[in-house]
Amino acid sequence: MINIKNNIDKIKAQIQQACQENGRLISHSGLSSSSSPVSLLAVSKTKPAALIKQAHIAGQNDFGENYLQEALEKITELAHLPHLVWHFIGPIQSNKTKQIASNFSWVHSVDREKIVLRLNQHLLNDETHNTPLNICLQVNISNESSKSGVAINEVFALAEIVNNCDKLTLRGLMAVPEKSAENACYEQMQNLFEQLKKSYPSVDTLSLGMSNDLEQAIAHGSTMVRIGTAIFGERTNKT
């Protein structure tokens, strides 16, 4: 039987150690702030609401989902729990933007202008939604044809489009480096993030690092690591 609390505690200890080794700080809650720059995003795709509830009881509030319909069912089922923050981290189809905009606080996988404008327009049309949607631009840092993401040389143009949208807040960048990526790949993301911060005061998030590269990502400036398997166990559906 999976012990979610123990798994979360182990991950937070790893984060803390990586931060200490790289001269960075982390709060005991795992929530990011100016004095604790690395937060934990629990990736709960394909996992049941019952396990998310266990993670919430253990103090975890931020959850990442890849598949919209599955996520909406869990969001509805867990709506009674306080302080849950839902992050959409999967590829975005344009016909799904309305539901994503209405049900998530963060979107990490924005990679083209059409998606930006549709997310913003849905929120402009929704008079009941008063909170801006937090946006991270997904960068295809390893230039893999199988992965989504904007090219490095197109990041600033897309960032400007997000920044000009009334209902969106540009928060930073997200990337999924290839498994064998060298440090140079992470350095590119770190440099791109630092450049973006200089241009946009709202930028404070580098969503980089998963179970297999947590330490490497933190060493290169990640402010949010996305951990699924190490918390919830192997996925039953890996599509």
Describe the model.
This protein has about 240 residues and is an alpha/beta fold. The chain has one domain: TIM Barrel (Alpha-Beta Barrel), CATH 3.20.20.10. About 40% of the residues lie in helices and about 15% in strands. It is built from 9 helices and 8 strands. The chain has helices at about 5-20, 50-55, 70-75, 95-105, 115-125, 155-165, 185-200, 215-220, 230, and strands at about 40-45, 60-65, 85-90, 105-110, 135-140, 170-175, 205-210, 225. Strands 7-6-5-4-3-2-1-8 form an 8-stranded parallel β-sheet. Strand 4 (about 105-110), helix 5 and strand 5 (about 135-140) form a beta-alpha-beta unit. Helix 4 packs across helix 5. It is globular and about 45 Å long. It starts with a helix and ends in a 7-residue tail after the last helix. Mean pLDDT is about 90; it is low at about 25-35.
